[in-house]
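I am still getting used to backbone structure tokens and would like to learn alongside you. Would you supply a protein for us yourself, any chain you care to pick? Start from the sequence, derive the backbone structure tokens from it, and show both lines together. Go ahead whenever you are ready, and we will take it from there.
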Amino acid sequence: MRGKFIVLEGIDGSGKTTLAHTISDAVGGAELTFEPTSGPIGSALRSGAYGDIPPAAEALLFAADRAVHTRQIEEILDSGRWVICDRYLGSTVAYQSASFGESADWDWLLGMQKKSVITPDLTILLDIDPEVSMARVSRRGEELSRFEKLDFLRKVRSAYLRLADILDYQVVDAAGDEKQVAETVLEIMRKKGLYAPQ
């Protein structure tokens, strides 16, 4: 039996990593993945090795990293295991459309990925006010990336909410405590036949 593919989307500090572990525990174990990946392209993107490149080039690199990642996800799903992925197709559209600004071409951002992605069984958008998310990120004591700026994240959040309507994401308020958020997501999964509490 093929495994299930769950995607968690949202800006930094929305609680994706914590929720991924909670869902994995609830379903009896899952492969936890993330994007950009730790592969050659993803690692270069994370480190900033490509420098200041045009948004179109960056979007294509994220898509290339995702194409390789998708093949790995398919192999895991075919083995019967679940995959819970921290960011997928939506992250490129949300973040790169914010980078493009008024010139963002949503048809291109979505279309260029058609042959390199699969449809998740469920995508959860953890929605949170960027001011709250930035406070959470700051408490980690990590250096902020160039994407972690308040005005930019407001644009990303707006893009994510628009994307949720287009791609039927389940939007969950991520401002509550971790337990509340997890309970809400597990209830969504139960209603969709993806989770049966023991």
